[in-house]
Design goal:
The protein is mainly alpha-helical. Helix content is 62%, strand content 4%. α1 (3-21) packs parallel to α3.
Length: 187
């Protein structure tokens, strides 16, 4: 099986797991606006469209790095690490998870597992998985996809920050001051 097919299979497996986990989540009490939801969804969707679909513009398919036998293996390893982080984070956030920016009924502030170091480890993990996929693919479109997804999740994470401050107040502010948003803080 080609390295890109392996990445495709990892993404499909991850997506199926995510859909199964989404069945049992808490009910939302407050939700982001439709416009903000659309904004980050379009950016993230465009990124995933770029990396997984062959678009006709030849410049998107140019190589990024010199050809190497180890690059696909490195990419798959990075992708697996990213999926592992995202799954670990999803296990810790449990029923508080949502694909949209929401405050749940009986919402809990999760500070365990990977949430000890970053406030949005699912995004961090999936960006790592996307980076790994881009390394396997080794095309300009992978880098552009990564930038689009990062922009979408950066917007979404800022909206989530505001929602969490309005839900948890000083408790969330103290938590935010002690952790990184998408990447751990260097001390």
């Amino acid at each position: 099986m080609s390295p890109m097919r392996i990445c495709d299979a990892l993404w499909v497996g991850f997506y199926v797991l995510w859909l199964l986990w989404a069945i049992r989540i808490k009910k939302a009490e407050r939700r982001e606006s439709s416009l903000s939801y659309l904004l980050h969804r379009v950016l993230v969707g465009a990124g995933f469209l770029l990396i997984f679909f062959d678009l006709p513009w030849k410049w998107l398919h140019r190589r990024m790095l010199p050809s190497s036998e180890w690059l696909p293996l490195l990419g798959i390893t990075v992708a697996l690490a990213g999926f592992g982080l995202a799954i670990w984070a999803r296990m810790h956030i449990g029923r508080n998870w949502s694909s949209a920016v929401v405050a749940k009924s009986e919402h809990e502030l999760i500070c365990s597992g990977p949430y000890r170091w970053v406030r949005h480890p699912i995004y961090s993990g999936l960006m790592l998985a996307l980076l790994g996929t881009a390394l396997v693919q080794d095309q300009v479109r992978g880098l552009i996809a990564l930038l689009l997804v990062y922009a979408g999740w950066k917007i979404k994470s800022r909206l989530e920050e505001r929602m969490m401050v309005s839900t948890f107040g000083d408790q969330y502010t103290a938590y935010a001051n002690s952790t990184g948003a998408l990447f751990p803080r260097l001390r």
